[in-house]
């Protein structure tokens, strides 16, 4: 087997040193009836060519986003990732390194984590950020637990702007951890929610997403004010992180914790994962934060260096008293984010955001001219919701047959809720004028 | 006269000079100092070419961002050089043996990387119409099949994003089952051996359970008598790692499982050490109800400097009905995801909820599956055998130079304690740091907690005998040096790495967690 | 000194009238190593003997400080909050954690005296 270097000669020499007659002897602590005599019922080993062929065949059965006009969003977005990003993250020293617990020989990882934390804090308008969470949805769950710890309260209010699967992740965690939730109904654009009415003296936090699940931008300032008046925190969720190149960051609107999905920067769609959760907060809450943190210090020779720090919050030291059971971050996806963001820089990031917004505005204009289509949004970034004359799922299906991936029917995530005619569409810098024209034309045909 | 050299170029190497010679730049040949990317800021430069959109009327509703963000402006060649230089400061499995116990740092085949980057895998959206992603769903279904066969368990949840997330998923399924049995209130305790990973108690506590520690015997295994005495009708579950964190197989595991089930509780197994038994022992045959599998350990998806991982959870028949959404089913019209509560209801199942948005770590699924298919049933069995053989070879070769707290044979990792350092003035940490100067990443230290000054070595199956022999010889040299009063080799180590020991106290006392621009200089007076 | 007592969790209590001052022992600070962070209770809070009164952290460990006597928190040492090194420098003096107004002075009498604690620590080696 090509990945296994030991030869039969090696094995028998080693058994000799150990003083065992056979490898079976090394497994003698396994209860006899649990030892498998033969092989499990699975195919035998295969060469690289055969594996490549089999998996490529599976891959070929999928319609890749880059092969068609593509407008699917709702929490994951297709953007152009510069070629150098993927090249750099595949360097052995990044790809095949472990968590940087030995800082003397992992300064590469630690320094990019420090750069990542800085970038995330900057774009969200917050004081500090951690070294990432698994993804936006799990980060959102962790943010609610953190708010409970900070406020010593147990009840969170989830706005109807929140992605339904994010809300489900929070609900799952809250149910099992015995916390309370006030889940508001889905907030369609043009019908502002009265969140303040839901904030009570026992509310620990309010979770609001902007751009919202339906694409609408939300004014966080009055919500922050209402939350703070009752001693609650505002958690702002940003699933499309490119938006912060164009839109006022949550930190400037009073958010106490900002959770983001960083996939859009540096990371591909990957059918849903791995992604990278962004998590930022105010300086005063640092010790209540979950996840890894990298900090600056000096070495024995006085040179600047970086280490994982404030580890006493974490499970490997605190065990059952840890701030979270989390034990990993999304290292390589952070690196991809950091490199892409560094390539973009101040001007590139802002321009990318403007291009996205322009692409969505153009698409909205084209689609609003299709008979029977109504765009619901007033203020949006690169994604909006439209009402169709019939089932959005059927329309998406028919569009797919015409070679256009035309968005996410709301009913896929919220079935049976009376939203069958709603379609969420996103347009990013990867869409050309021709793509948008093709979408509009195909929509006319299928309606 | 021979050897005339009119260019004045010396032909022999000068003798003398210090390795610690100071340079003007601070660089040391291939070891290059590198600033933070923010300090490379050169306004006007940019690493991408993006055209300004044609003028349009914005629809941001008055939420336009104002002011500078503070991101640096740097060109592509400078960015490439910056991150290449940073990479050179890292140790990696590709560069050398990485004996971190409990972490399974094995070779990461590049075929797996190639497969993950196929456009039909890497460039598909989780919410595309299902008829456009049939191959992806087939891949998930195939992976699920392999995991179920290898563990002998009937169900699997693929979505958990890492080992600890898998633990959470497994324990949620257990609690959901207890709720369904009407015994949630009555069962409030979770038993965890004192040798467990920190995530186990943290996970149980997150779900509101009272965590109780079970003692370990002098043989490094769960104290069966003490364990049975702790069991009762108020116990929800036991969380056990097997092979355990001392690198030993829990001989009494079937008795433990029987006792757990007799008491009406469930058996959660931390599958971090599955590499030792893959293809040779199926957890389902041991009486386990739920176990997470770290795809980044046993199935070799790259650790990536701390993630992303993936932690699918396999379930026994008792817990299978509670496995979370989403999951893949196969029907008349192909593969389909059961995503929402409504879907599940129609499918007749009772999942406890959802662990994450979308469907899990697809990028890790494809890598793990490529790894499994490459090995096959025969190769995977060989993986466990070679991993165990390498670890026992290390244990046998070093037990007289270091000190081993428990009798062998061990499984995939060899545990030592710090008795061999007694009286030397060298501690486990110093010993490990001296390994860095010798070109090795240290082993896991001070874990498990049940052994004083623990050194936990996991060579994995992808190390050759030559590589393991060199490693053993190095540790013997170091042990000899420690015992012969060569204390400074250790207490000041590492001397030769890109950075020497870092001041963690200073970092924690006044945390600096982000870069800030230097304060503007006062105008000259 | 008869007004100081100790616990087997390495806390000390010094009593002056009905006011108890609580800290961690010199042995404890040595075992912890460099203290990097101290978390103190709110003034006015009432705590029972055995409750967690504070948390003390080094780089590699976090320990709860339990109060051996019950009472109301009347003062906390904000100096060690700002400069945790103070715990290492003078654990038995300026590095104190909390002052309580005791509700049950009898609790104090049950604790180890200095000699008993000394013996206890020696027994740990």
Q: Tell me the distance between the termini of chain C.
A: 25 Å
The CATH topology annotation of chain C reads as: OB fold (Dihydrolipoamide Acetyltransferase, E2P)
Radius of gyration of chain C from CA coordinates? 13 Å
- Uncertain regions of chain C: pLDDT < 50 for 5+ in a row? none
CATH superfamily heading of the largest domain in chain B: Type I PLP-dependent aspartate aminotransferase-like (Major domain)
**Over all CA atoms, what is the radius of gyration of chain B?**
27 Å
> How many structural domains of chain C?
1
The largest contact between protein chains, plus residue counts on each side, is:
A-B, 212 and 204 residues
Please indicate the percent range of residues of chain B in DSSP E strands (runs of 2 or more).
5-15%
Into which percentage range does the β-strand content of chain C fall? Answer: 35-45%
Using DSSP, what is the number of strands of chain C?
Answer: 9
Report on the structure:
The complex is a heterotrimer of chains A (447), B (525) and C (125). By secondary structure, chain A is of the alpha/beta class. Chain A folds into two domains: 113 residues, Aspartate Aminotransferase, domain 1 (Alpha-Beta Complex); 258 residues, Aspartate Aminotransferase, domain 2 (3-Layer(aba) Sandwich). Chain A contains 14 helices and 13 strands. In chain A, helix 4 packs antiparallel against helix 11, helix 6 packs parallel to helix 11 and helix 7 crosses helix 8. Chain A starts with 7 loop residues before the first helix and ends with a helix. Chain B has two domains: 261 residues, Type I PLP-dependent aspartate aminotransferase-like (Major domain) (Aspartate Aminotransferase, domain 2); 123 residues, Aspartate Aminotransferase, domain 1, CATH 3.90.1150.10. In chain B, 32% of the residues lie in helices and 9% in strands. In chain B, the strands form three sheets. Chain B has a seven-stranded mixed β-sheet with strand order 1-7-6-5-4-2-3, sandwiched between helices. A three-stranded antiparallel β-sheet of chain B has the order 10-12-11. In chain B, strands 8-9 form a two-stranded antiparallel sheet. The mean pLDDT of chain B is 94. The two termini of chain C are 25 Å apart. In chain C, a hairpin with a 3-residue loop joins strand 6 and strand 7. The radius of gyration of chain C is 13 Å and the shape is globular. Chain C has one domain: OB fold (Dihydrolipoamide Acetyltransferase, E2P) (Beta Barrel). Chains A and B meet through helix 1, helix 2, helix 3, helix 4 and helix 5 of A and helix 1, helix 2, helix 3, helix 4 and helix 5 of B.
């Amino acid at each position: 087997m090509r990945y296994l270097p030991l030869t039969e000669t090696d094995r028998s020499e080693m058994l000799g040193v150990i003083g065992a007659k056979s490898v079976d002897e090394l497994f003698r602590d396994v209860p006899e009836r649990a030892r498998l005599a033969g092989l499990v019922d699975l195919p035998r080993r295969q060469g690289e060519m055969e594996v490549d062929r089999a998996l490529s065949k599976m891959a070929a059965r999928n319609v890749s986003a880059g092969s068609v006009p593509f407008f699917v969003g709702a929490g994951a977005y297709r953007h152009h990732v510069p070629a150098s990003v993927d090249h750099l993250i595949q360097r052995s020293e990044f790809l095949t390194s472990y968590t940087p617990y030995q800082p003397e020989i992992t300064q590469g990882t630690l320094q990019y984590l420090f750069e990542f934390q800085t970038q995330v804090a900057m774009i969200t308008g917050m004081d500090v950020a951690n070294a990432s969470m698994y993804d936006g949805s799990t980060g959102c769950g962790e943010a609610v637990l953190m708010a409970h710890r900070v406020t010593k309260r147990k009840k969170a209010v989830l706005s109807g702007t929140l992605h339904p699967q994010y809300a489900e992740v929070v609900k799952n965690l809250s149910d099992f951890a015995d916390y309370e939730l006030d889940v508001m109904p889905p907030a369609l654009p043009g019908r502002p929610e009265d969140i303040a009415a839901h904030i009570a003296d026992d509310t620990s936090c309010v979770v609001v997403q902007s751009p919202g699940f339906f694409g609408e931008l939300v004014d966080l300032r009055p919500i922050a004010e209402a939350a703070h008046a009752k001693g609650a925190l505002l958690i702002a969720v940003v699933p499309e992180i490119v938006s912060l190149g164009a839109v006022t960051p949550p930190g400037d609107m009073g958010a106490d914790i900002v959770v983001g999905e960083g996939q859009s920067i540096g990371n591909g769609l990957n059918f849903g994962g791995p992604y990278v959760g962004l998590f930022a907060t105010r300086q005063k809450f640092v010790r209540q934060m979950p996840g890894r943190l990298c900090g600056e210090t000096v070495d024995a020779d006085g040179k600047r260096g970086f280490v994982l720090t404030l580890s006493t919050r974490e499970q490997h030291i605190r065990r059952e008293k840890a701030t979270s059971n989390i034990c990993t971050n999304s290292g390589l996806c952070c690196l991809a984010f950091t490199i892409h963001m560094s390539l973009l820089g101040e001007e590139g990031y802002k321009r990318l955001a403007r291009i996205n917004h322009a692409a969505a505005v153009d698409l909205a204009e084209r689609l609003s001219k299709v008979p029977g289509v109504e765009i619901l949004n007033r203020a949006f970034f690169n994604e909006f919701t439209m009402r169709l004359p019939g089932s959005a799922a059927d329309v998406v299906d028919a569009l797919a047959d015409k070679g256009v991936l035309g968005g996410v029917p709301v009913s896929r995530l919220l079935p049976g809720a009376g939203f069958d005619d709603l379609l969420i569409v996103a347009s990013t810098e990867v869409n050309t004028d021709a793509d948008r024209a093709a979408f509009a034309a195909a929509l006319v045909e299928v309606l | 006269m021979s050897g005339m050299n009119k260019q004045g170029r010396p032909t022999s190497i000068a003798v003398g000079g210090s390795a610690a010679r100071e340079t003007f730049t601070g660089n040391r040949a291939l070891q290059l100092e590198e600033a933070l990317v923010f300090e490379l800021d050169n306004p006007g430069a940019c690493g991408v070419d993006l055209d300004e959109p044609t003028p349009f009327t914005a629809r941001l509703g008055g939420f336009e961002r104002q002011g500078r963000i503070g991101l640096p402006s740097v060109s592509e060649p400078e960015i490439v050089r910056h991150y290449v230089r940073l990479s050179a400061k890292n140790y990696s499995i590709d560069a050398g043996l990485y004996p971190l116990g409990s972490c399974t740092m094995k070779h990461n085949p590049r075929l797996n990387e190639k497969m993950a980057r196929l456009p039909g895998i890497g460039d598909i959206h989780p919410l595309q119409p299902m008829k456009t992603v049939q191959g992806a769903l087939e891949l998930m279904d195939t992976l699920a099949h392999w995991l179920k066969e290898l563990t002998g368990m009937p169900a699997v949840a693929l979505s958990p994003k890492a080992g600890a997330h898998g633990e959470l998923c497994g324990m949620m399924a257990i609690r959901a089952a207890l709720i369904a049995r009407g015994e949630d209130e009555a069962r409030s305790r979770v038993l965890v051996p004192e040798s467990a990973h920190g995530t186990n108690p943290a996970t149980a506590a997150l779900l509101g359970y009272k965590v109780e520690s079970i003692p370990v015997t002098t043989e490094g295994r769960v104290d069966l008598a003490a364990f049975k005495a702790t069991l009762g009708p108020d116990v929800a579950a036991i969380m056990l790692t097997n092979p355990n964190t001392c690198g030993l197989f829990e001989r009494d595991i079937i008795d433990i499982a029987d006792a757990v089930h007799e008491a009406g509780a469930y058996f959660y197994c931390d599958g971090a050490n599955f590499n030792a038994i893959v293809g040779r022992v199926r957890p389902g045959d041991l009486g386990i109800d739920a176990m997470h599998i770290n795809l980044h350990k046993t199935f070799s998806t790259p650790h990536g400097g701390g993630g992303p991982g993936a932690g699918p959870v396999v379930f026994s028949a008792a817990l299978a009905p509670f496995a979370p959404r989403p999951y893949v089913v196969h029907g008349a019209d192909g593969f389909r995801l059961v995503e929402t509560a409504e879907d599940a209801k129609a499918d007749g199942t009772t999942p406890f909820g959802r662990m994450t948005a979308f469907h899990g770590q697809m990028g890790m699924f494809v890598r793990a599956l490529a790894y499994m298919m490459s090995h096959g049933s025969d190769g995977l069995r060989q993986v466990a055998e070679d991993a165990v053989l390498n670890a026992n070879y290390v244990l046998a070769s070093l037990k007289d130079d270091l000190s081993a707290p428990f009798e062998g044979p061990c499984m995939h990792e060899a545990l030592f304690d710090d008795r061999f350092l007694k009286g030397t003035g060298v501690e486990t940490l110093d010993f490990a740091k001296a390994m860095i100067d010798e070109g090795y990443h240290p082993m896991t230290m001070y874990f498990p907690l049940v052994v004083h000054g623990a050194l936990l070595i996991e060579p994995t199956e992808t190390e050759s005998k030559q590589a393991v022999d060199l490693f053993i010889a190095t540790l013997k040299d170091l042990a000899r040096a420690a015992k012969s009063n060569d204390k400074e080799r250790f207490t000041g180590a590492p001397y030769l790495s890109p950075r020497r020991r870092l001041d963690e106290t200073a970092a924690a006392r006044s945390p600096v967690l982000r870069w800030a621009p230097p304060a503007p200089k006062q105008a000259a007076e | 000194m008869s007004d100081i007592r100790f616990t087997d969790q390495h806390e000390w209590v010094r009593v002056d009238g009905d006011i108890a001052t609580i800290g961690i022992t010199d042995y404890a600070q040595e075992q912890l190593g460099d203290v990097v962070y101290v978390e103190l209770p709110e003034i006015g809070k009432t705590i029972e003997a055995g409750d967690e009164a504070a948390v003390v952290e080094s780089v590699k460990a976090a320990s709860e400080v339990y109060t051996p006597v019950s009472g109301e928190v009347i003062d906390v040492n904000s100096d060690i909050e700002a400069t945790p090194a103070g715990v290492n420098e003078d654990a038995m003096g300026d590095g104190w954690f909390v002052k309580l107004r005791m509700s049950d002075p009898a609790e104090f009498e049950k604790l180890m005296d200095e000699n008993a604690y000394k013996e206890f620590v020696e027994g740990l080696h």
